[in-house]
Amino acid sequence: MKVTTDFKNLPSQKPTNPVKPFEEIAEGMEANFTSHMLAEMRKTVPKETPDSSAMEYYNSLLDYERAQLMAKSDSGLGVKKVILDQIVPQHMKHYLKQAKALEPSQGMTNVSMKENTNE
Fold it and tell me: Could you read off the pLDDT of 37-79 as tens digits, one per residue?
């Protein structure tokens, strides 16, 4: 094995987003919450005959996939943004602001929690 000190041939490494793990956690939490909410909403629909176990399993998979898609989108329930605001350390908050500034607007306004309270 030949060891070289030629660093020009090494693949360039892009700077990583340090809040990415927090975003993945928040997205997973929103997906779990949304999946549970969809399952509970499905229970409120009256049915003439109960679903078979196969249909229940299919509906649970469908709820999970819908929840994943909702959590990945910026126009989901908004739980991800609230969780990120709570779990991202203060010294890393500027990374969230930079990421929001770089994303194209989806037509939704960003309203912080402080703006909603009467403080």
Answer: 999 999 999 999 999 999 999 999 999 999 999 999 888 888 9
Q: What is the dihedral of CA 88, 90, 95, 98, to 10 degrees?
A: 120
DSSP code at position 91:
G
d(CA 44, CA 25): 29
Residue 101 amino acid letter: A
The answer to whether residues 25 and 33 touch, using CB atoms and an 8 Å cutoff, is no
98: its two tokens? 């930079």
74/105 Cα distance (integer angstroms): 10
**Domain ranges, ordered by start, for the chain:** 18-44+51-88
User: How far from 10 is each of 14, 16, 79, 83, 96, CA to CA, in Å?
Assistant: 12, 17, 40, 38, 30
CA 32 to CA 63: how far, in whole Å?
10
**DSSP code, position 109:** P
